[in-house]
Amino acid sequence: MSRLGNSAVSSKPGGSAADSETVGWFGRVGLATSGVIYLLIGILAVRLAFGFGDEQADQKGAIEVIGRQPFGKVMLPLLVIGFVVLTVWYAAKAYKGGKVGDGHSGGVKTRIGLAASSVFSATLAVTTLRVTMKAFEDQKPEAGGGEKEKEAVAAVLDWPGGKYIVFAAALYFVYWGGKMLKRAIKKDYLEQFAGLRQSRRKIVDPLGRAGFSAQAVVRWVAAWFLVKAAMDHDAEKTVGLDGALRELADQSYGPWLLVAVALGMAAFGIFRLFDAAWRSDAYL
User: Fold this and answer.
1) Which of 74, 82, 232, 236 is surrounded by the most beta carbons within 10 Å?
2) Confidence class for position 254, pLDDT limits 50, 70, 90
3) Of 89, 73, 146, residue with least CA distance to 122
4) pLDDT at residue 2 tops 50
5) Does the pLDDT at position 100 exceed 50?
6) CA quadruple 57, 63, 67, 72: dihedral, nearest 10
7) Would the pLDDT of 6 be above 60?
């Protein structure tokens, strides 16, 4: 019986070692899938900073770039499977509880966050499936990065008290960014690499710091534009991940901040790939 199976069964009486090991492998496959996407987002953002391309620098843009490659029709179905697997893993962890790393120590708050991550992963699975279907039908992908975010905010702003709901969403993004920065500073993401030899820790440590710091910056930029959208009652001022990166590029300090954030996003992608390979069984 594997070490993973033993730890899982001992922490969850009555659980199946085979089921626990399957959930663990789901976690590794799902984390690797998200790593590939974040790495591509970082590459797209670097291209955006230097004017080499105009693709969406977000999850959908990364998926569409994969679809346009010669191997796209092979990779896209694998991505769909990867995101479905990631959805199931987050849902299973939300149901069972327990530590999952990245500063999450378990409990109700962790379960709620995992459930939200499961929903987000499911939306990526659906998005990838749509891009896959268009690729096999030789259709061009839909344009308009950030339009769904704007439509959602516009709908909420029309509700009674909708402005305050959007403000609350902005505050959540500020809080979320703060959590990301806290992880970068405290390096609590290293807890999920229990038993990892020092030479490998020296690889994942700087990648984690850069990656979580970049995640914080992007969320704070998105929060600022949510505040502007609420204050002006104008959903057009809402930005998603792609829009937040583009806003950085348009500032007076130029594309260099975007390059730094883009490299951080790419570092986060590489960190997730190592995370998938080296994460301790106890955190799967």
Assistant:
1) 82
2) low
3) 89
4) no
5) yes
6) 120
7) no
Q: Assign 101 to helix, strand or coil.
A: strand
Answer yes or no: is pLDDT of 7 > 50.
Answer: no
Q: How far apart are alpha carbons 140 and 137 in whole angstroms?
A: 9
Cα–Cα distance, 24 to 244 (Å, whole number) = 33
pTM of the predicted structure, to 2 decimals: 0.82
What is the rounded distance in angstroms from the CA atom of residue 205 to the CA atom of residue 43? 21
The DSSP letter of residue 58 is S
Angle of helix 198-232 relative to helix 255-278, nearest 10 degrees, comes to: 130
**240, 219 Cβ separation under 8 angstroms:** no
**Nearest Cα residue to 58 out of 262, 248, 209:** 262
| The two structure tokens encoding residue 107 | 């409990």
- Nearest Cα to Cα of residue 240 among 262, 258, 219, 266: 219
Helical ranges in the chain per DSSP H:
3-11, 17-49, 59-67, 72-96, 108-136, 147-157, 162-186, 198-232, 241-249, 255-278
Tokens of 119: 């929903």
In contact, 39 and 270? CB cutoff 8 Å? yes
